[in-house]
């Protein structure tokens, strides 16, 4: 009866999916957590996912959100399982799959969820919720390779996985064809309608495929900023020839932006990049040009001069007015922040025009586990059981709850655990095709028939088939399994003679409870651990327990003896430069310190640890002497930590540690003297009044500091996490070169782990909020702190202030984020810079700073990525300086250097997408 009910349930789900497609072939719109069918204001027909067997539903209320599909959601436990929706598709047909997520504080905890979404075995995206009211949207374009697809949620890091809507849109013909579609999906990053008449996106029914064309007037959509002066909107009501399926809908092409001053300039954050992508622009001449007028322009990508050669002449390329021309790159390397410009040619009378743009990232498909097809046939007879409906790949991105897989690049199943799952019928013979299977647990079911031949499973170690209704003889082939160590077949209906090869094998073997199964002759010279009766089982159990107790007692005594004799070594960082000698810290005498500092005469700094004094050694070397507070337990711990660390790590961008002194109850650290004090003092301290450091110098300071941190994170084994990065811990020498200081709170990362459990330490304003909540310290905690320092460099403001950021804001991160995301970077730039900077380099650092202070560590870049962007910004700034100064030699040299470092494509590089010779060649569709 239960199976019949489930059969009707699945039939109802399929019927709902088919009904939803009636509006247009291949359209599915699932209202997750919904209660009934409805048609929205666009004419899209929605069906609830109420036939879904997993998860729970919640109602939510979000201000100004009235669409019915966003009043509910479905959420799932934060466990190790994945939860999958299965949708029917047509093989060899292209589709758009869209998933949306509106948190709405459904759990009443304000714990912003973070989890993964995958398409089958391919990781699609990490969903990171940063507030309760923003709808997160993920879109993927794919060519269906099978009759069904699985969209799965898994790997909750915080909160619970959830989903608001799931939509499927079928394309026609060759829409979005690429030569690489059998290996790569297209992850939608940007789809922009330029010159839009309103903030509302254009989608179905204006776009027959229900693509969502975001308005360029919404700056928060991909943070489209930096619009060039002279940019104006134009529009027409004339019909546009959009006969090609790929072309944006007519309503999108009827609007555009024009650069009346000869230039269209934008900056665009590209979700999912850097990486290789598919990028196309769409142009249609919608203005009336006089016969003697022309509109010709070029695309300019910073650092990629080879892509700026082709001239766009819309009317000529499109063969007339009101027709669409669509040049683009089917495979191009793009950064996270894309700066692009359309500039008119010298013989053009009109400035450039742009109607729409679309950018997708190539997402490499995962082939899935080795055993996907085999395990599908195994579970087919049990498809109505809940355990058989987990969906997706059995191993990827996380395994089903009843299997375990190995960690090979293409994993295979090693353990099947289906004990007491109400299995009936014969043992599936396809199980014998799982060549890497190590454990098989099928006990406690109602399986009948014979035991199949498992000769192909040469890795099998453990087989549990007890407490079933298996019949027939015990296969002698089981004795040929080279790794078999445990075999349990008791309490079945087996008959015949136990094969002697099993009796002679060194094996834990239980075949009791099979009244028609008899023991045959065996060779006594082999060790036999088999159990043929309940009495034998008891004898074996007692003997095993006594043996284990005896062995454990002996081993324990021996272990304790050795343990007392030789304690574990202390873990220390080691430079990755293997030829670097291990150096012990120099031990100064107290009299040395007193002579050098004239009895601690000149105080140059202080903190919770103690006081810093100026000194000069007999050889004239200037030193800084840190004297710890005598009654500080924390200070003494930091003293030991810093001595151990600094005696082993050396880098030109770390303050040089010269030695220590411990005499007469004093704990003293000795460093090189940094003549220009701290970065903090130069940004908003006493030194600011003397002279403000310019933008290029700030970038160089950031570069120096990033190099020092990069050494700690990647140049030491194990890595060192500073844990207290701030502008007062970045010191400047007499040449204004920066070095990172103060390692009292630093921690060693543990090799092979992703984090260090740690009591929270650090400075308010620089402290990583994720570390504060979880107490799990990672190198991304340092990246967060460094992001705050970058914002200080831009703004000249303190990290925490009661006056500088307005009535409702106390920290620099919140304040800067509001300005940067709205495109108002001028609102945070330090006025003392007096326009002495290139806006492109400023934007690059601002946007990288925002990435550094993302709420979750996984979203933040590594310090190496940050360093590269700082170096790129320095390059941009020097180019701008050369242009201002009119030095053509410098310009050409910098341009050549830039082309080698920004967005270049290396077909021969390992770990990069290498597609074909058409890479980076503009294509008109």
List keywords for this structure.
single chain, 925 residues, Leucine-rich repeat, LRR (right-handed beta-alpha superhelix), 5 domains, 13-stranded mixed sheet, seven-stranded mixed sheet, 26% strand, flat, disordered N terminus
Task: Walk me through the structure.
With 925 residues, this protein is α+β, with helices and mostly antiparallel strands. The chain folds into five domains: 2-170, Jelly Rolls (Sandwich), CATH 2.60.120; 218-357, Jelly Rolls; 379-532, Ribonuclease Inhibitor (Leucine-rich repeat, LRR (right-handed beta-alpha superhelix)); 590-672, Phosphorylase Kinase, domain 1 (2-Layer Sandwich), CATH 3.30.200; 680-889, Transferase(Phosphotransferase) domain 1 (Transferase(Phosphotransferase), domain 1, Orthogonal Bundle), CATH 1.10.510.10. The chain has 16 helices and 52 strands. Strands 1, 2, 3, 7, 10, 13, 14, 15, 19, 22, 23, 26 and 52 form a 13-stranded mixed β-sheet that branches. It has a seven-stranded mixed β-sheet with strand order 27-28-30-32-34-36-38. Strands 40-41-42-44-43 form a five-stranded antiparallel β-sheet, sandwiched between helices. A hairpin with a 5-residue loop joins β47 and β48 (738-740). α10 runs antiparallel to α15, α14 packs antiparallel against α15 and α15 packs antiparallel against α16 (888-901). The radius of gyration is 34 Å and the shape is flat. The relative contact order is 0.07.
